Amino acid sequence: MMRTCRYESPLGAILIFADEEGITGMRFEHGSRHDLKAEDVQDCGKSPILSEAALWLDEYFDARAPSWIPPLHVIGSDFEKAVCAAMLKIPCGMTRTYGDIASELAEASGKRMSAQAVGGAVGRNPICIIIPCHRVMGAGGNLTGYGGGLDRKIALLKLEGAWKENFHLPKAKKR
């Protein structure tokens, strides 16, 4: 059975989704971007897994860098799961590029990997913050995108002490 709760963070409400195995999704609530009715969302304390996720977020937003990970149930392709596993290895306060992750996966698998393919998988990360897609950058400090919005990506990097002055917003595409 899928359970959902709303966690009020300093950066806005976060919806957390879980089944019996673990957290299946976590994303910032964006008004019309979610299709949940109020009655579908429960108190995080009503499920042990949702409660653990809320506790993890409490520690994270209190700038205590949790040393543990609540149970996760990542749903996606094998490649997407491998990219999520690689993101989980990025320490709090550090960043990696899409190219770094592509190289790591290529070395582990013996297959060529493109930074663009990694970027697509990062963009489909179902569990934000805990699986830290906000720590993944484009080459040269390009912030690229973030499902929760670039303002939140910047805030998360600053909270972790990972913000660098050479990071920059993506350049606008010429028409």
Please indicate the percent range of residues in DSSP E strands (runs of 2 or more).
5-15%
CATH architecture title of the largest domain: Orthogonal Bundle
Question: What is the name of the CATH superfamily of the largest domain?
Answer: Winged helix-like DNA-binding domain superfamily/Winged helix DNA-binding domain
The major beta sheet can be summarized as: 3 strands, antiparallel
Tell me the Rg in angstroms. Answer: 16 Å
The unreliable regions are: none
Number of strands: 5
- State the CATH topology of the largest domain: Arc Repressor Mutant, subunit A
Q: Please trace the helix and strand order, writing H or E for each element.
A: EEEHHEHHEH
Report mean pLDDT, rounded to a whole number.
90
Strand order of the largest sheet: 1-2-3
